[in-house]
Each structure stands twice: as C-alpha cells, then as structure tokens.
Amino acid sequence: MNTSILTNADLHCHSRVSDGTLTPEALATRAKTNGVQLWALTDHDEVGGQQRAIHAARALELPYLTGVEVSVSFAGRVVHIVGLGFDHHNTALVEGLRATRGGREQRAREMADGLAQVGIKGAYEGALKFVGNPELISRTHFARFLVEAGHCQDVPEVFRRFLTEGKPGYVEHKWARLSDALRWIHGAGGLAVIAHPARYGFNPTEEYALITEFMGHGGRGIEVVTGSHSDTEAAKYTETAIEFDLLASRGSDFHSPEESRTDLGRLADLSGRLQPIWMALEDRIIWPSCLH
Ligand code: AMP
Ligand code: MN
Ligand code: MN
Ligand code: MN
After folding, report:
1. Which regions of the chain are under pLDDT 50?
2. Given this model, what pLDDT does residue 289 score?
3. By three-state DSSP, how is residue 38 classified?
4. Atom of ligand 1 nearest to the CA of 156
5. Rounded to the nearest whole angstrom, what is the distance from the C-alpha of residue 291 to the centroid of ligand 3?
6. CATH assignment of 104-161, given 1.10.150.650, 1.20.1250.20, 3.40.50.300, 3.40.50.720?
7. Quick one: pLDDT at residue 290?
8. Which ligand sits closest to the CA of 81?
9. Ligand 1: which atom is nearest the Cα of residue 259?
C-alpha cells in the first residue's frame, strides 16, 4: 500500500497495559472493524503491549506502527510526547520508560492520603484493582474507583472535583525530561510527536517554547486531529503544523467504549495541506505479510 493514499490512520490509543480498558487484541479488532488502515497502540510510559499489538494487527492484516505516550514535565506542566515507529526492544527506551514509571506507586499512595483527608477511604487499593501493576497506576484508575464507589457519576467529574491541580487527590509529580523522552524515541529509530497540544493550557509564549525546544531536540511531529481536540482546535493546530513545518499526526486517544468520546478510527481527516507523519515512517510500518 502507498502511504500517500492512506487517510484513516489512528496513531494514539490505550490498552489495559496502561489506562485503557480493552486488551491489545480487542483494540486491534475494533480498529479493523472501524476501518482503520494504519494503527498504533500508545500506552502511557510502557511498551509491554507492543508485541501483542503487532501479532493481533498482523492476524487482521492491519498495518501497524509501534507506539508509546511518554509523560514529560515541561515548564511546570505535564506534556505528553507520542513516540512512533521505534524498536520496542531498545534497551535505553525500555529502561527510560521504566524509570519514568518508577514514581507512580508513591504518587498514588500520596493521592490516596489526600483523598482520605476528604473522607474517601481505600482509594489506593481501589484504584490498584483496576490495573494490577502499581508501576502503571494512573489517575484514570483512581477515577474509575471513585465512580464505582459512588463518589461521582463519571470519570470527568472525578477529575474536576478530585484529581486536577489544587484538588484533594492531586499530587504534583516529576516525569521525564523532554530531552530524555526524545533521546529514547530517536535512539530507538522512531519519530516524536507532541500529543494533543491544546490540552496543556499554555499561553502562546509557553507554547512557542515547547515547540521550539521540542524541535531543537529533533522532534518532528504534532497531533492535529485527535479525540482530545475540538474541530476549532484541530483547525488551529493545522496552521501551527504548517507554520513550524511539523509533520501532522492523527489519533483518537481512545481509552474505553464507556468513557471515550471518540472511537478508534472515527476522526476527521487531516487537511490536505498537511504532511502526514506516516509518510515519513513508511519504512517503519509493520505490514501484514500478504502486503509485502
Ligand atoms: P496520569 O498519567 O496518572 O497523571 O493520568 C493521566 C490520564 O488521565 C490521561 O492520560 C487521561 O487518560 C486521563 N485524564 C486526564 N485528564 C482528564 C480529564 N479531565 N477527564 C478524564 N480523563 C482525564
Ligand atoms: Mn490516559
Ligand atoms: Mn495524553
Ligand atoms: Mn493518550
């Protein structure tokens, strides 16, 4: 297949390996059913689902790119960097991600202490039930526990009331450095993408600093069409991508059939004025054997 005619790429979603609710296999099936032509699983700070995603995609004849979403601390905020098309066995990448995850258990215990102070007991154990591995415990798992325990109606309400800056369950955390995240991704042969840029609440000066620093470390891509952007935000970042000569990415950020607004593969197309990032990743795509 010629990547220039490919439109339905979905290069951002999560499995149970991080804070999604579906297995890599179920996601692959859902992507195929929804007409995805090129797929990447991008779990937070972990590549443990990649081998399963590759196998599942191959069995469904679905072209695949390896993926990850790295949590980065930048200018006092958390920024997410998606890596695509890397060698998921690369030692520096695997070790760097392990170090990034390292603080999650301690942070989760402190989050639970904060929640206990407002009368919500057992949140650490409750959240852990949703993930199993304390290294991968995230705010999403706390949100699911608080909904299950009847404290809130849904996940967004938990974030609003308990899990964002200034709220009782929020604990500031030090994630990876931008330079390290890009070094790990590039060292493993992949390309880096600024995920959902509209979500950070940066003013134009801060955003300029993020983009120029990212590009200074060799970053090439930016998400334009994502389940985390409105149409207006996608239009804005279409112009940003053109202005900075960045490659454009597209991904649903799908986590769960019950929680996600945007399903896998159900996104607007990238503007024809953009350079899709997958055209620069042609030699990194894992094609099903029938397409070789
Ligand atoms: P963590 O990496 O533990 O800080 O958790 C971040 C995750 O929480 C993100 O990847 C999203 O899946 C989820 N999240 C962040 N903000 C919100 C929100 N306002 N509503 C719902 N989910 C959110
Ligand atoms: Mn998430
Ligand atoms: Mn994200
Ligand atoms: Mn994501």
Report:
1. 292
2. 75
3. strand
4. 20
5. 32
6. 1.10.150.650
7. 56
8. 3
9. 21
